[in-house]
Structure formats: C-alpha cells, structure tokens
Amino acid sequence: MSFRIAPSARPELTTKSTFDTSHSEFGSHDTLRYGTRSIKTEVTPGHPLEHRLSQWGETQWELKLNMARQTYGMHAPIRMMMERSLVGKHGRMPVLPSSNLHMDILMGKDETIDYEDFLNDPSLSTDMLDIHAAMEKKLNL
Questions:
Q1: How wide is the angle at C-alpha 70 spanned by C-alphas 112 and 65, nearest 5°?
Q2: At a CB cut-off of 8 Å and minimum separation 6, what does 69 contact?
Q3: Region Disordered: start and end of each range (predicted)?
C-alpha cells in the first residue's frame, strides 16, 4: 500500500515489440495505421518528466483508492473500481462522438478545465474515421 502523490521519476525499462502493430495478414509492421517505426524511440527511454506526466492520473487514482480503503474499509475501493469499469465500457459504435460525463464525474475531472474541454472538437480532427478498422479493433478487445 502506497500513499505516493507523484509517480516515480525513473520509468521502468521495457522492451518494445512490433507484434502489437503488425498487420494481421502480412505479419509486418502496419505503417499506415501506426506510423513509421523509429529505432530511437524503441531503444532510448523518454524523458523522466514525460513518464511522470503519463502516469500522473493513475497514481492519483491509486492514492484515492488507498485513502478510501484506510478511511471507509475494503468495500469503498472495490465499489469505485466497479463503477469505473462499468462506466468505461462503451455501448456505441467507436466512430460516433460521445462524451463520457459519468467517467469525468467519477474521476473528478468535472471540476477542472483542461485543454481537452475546448480543443477536443471532432470536426477539427485530422484523424480519418475508418468505421471498419474501428469495429475490428472493438471486436478484437
């Protein structure tokens, strides 16, 4: 049980594989969907601050669960994790726009204004909406 407020400064070294980005039929790296490969990003770890920022939300969630466990008992974090898993499941098609307001309320993001709140306009997105690829990805999960 850890009451860590900020993530650790040093990221854990992991080996990266192109198995997750391989094409299902050809077996090679799928450049059109996942971009070009870079040996530098596969070998060198990122900046420690980048690791801290990527792990910030998860560390805060673990802190909230540990504090609820100490304050209310074991049932409180179990209920919080159950609510998060239920709300996290999407019932819509993946390419339809949706806001997950319930998840924002559970995570405490309804009280803050982040850049996603005003720069997350789907009409300004440069991503192509490939319905077939999105449904394949949803079915493979």
A1: 40
A2: 1, 76, 77
A3: 1-24
